Amino acid sequence: MTLINCMNCGQLIVRKSFHLCSGCLLAQQEDVKKIKTYLSTHPWASMIEVQRMTGVSLKTIRALASNQ
Ligand SMILES: [Zn+2]
């Protein structure tokens, strides 16, 4: 068992496949949905544009982009 701090809010959690606590994971999944929906209609959007249009933080967008 490995304990880590949630990457987003710093809460101490048992590490599974994600580096986020369940609350932040849920929020991130919502963000992913927003980004995917936006990109399906704007496939060439820049990160800045995605941030402006979806309200998802640039930090989150970068983290998601580097996971792919
Ligand atoms: Zn968290």
Number of helices: 3
The helical percent reads: 55-70%
Query: Which series of helices and strands comes N to C?
Result: EEHHH
* Poorly predicted parts: none
Cα separation of the termini: 26 Å
Q: Tell me the major beta sheet.
A: 2 strands, antiparallel
Spatial order of the strands forming the largest sheet = 1-2
Q: What structural class results from the helix and strand content?
A: mainly alpha
**Overall mean confidence score, pLDDT:** 91
Number of E strands: 2
| Global geometry | elongated
| Strand proportion | 5-15%
Heteromolecules bound: zinc ion
Rg over CA atoms, rounded to whole Å, is: 13 Å
| Tally of discrete structural domains | 1
Question: Could you list some keywords that capture this structure?
Answer:
single chain; 68 residues; mainly alpha; two-stranded antiparallel ribbon; 3 helices; 2 strands; 56% helix; binds zinc ion
Summarize the structure in words.
By secondary structure, this protein is mainly alpha-helical. The protein has one domain (3-66). The protein contains 3 helices and 2 strands, in the order ββααα. A two-stranded antiparallel ribbon has the order 1-2. A hairpin with a 6-residue loop joins strand 1 and strand 2. The two termini are 26 Å apart. The site of zinc ion (ZN) has 8 residues, from helix 1.
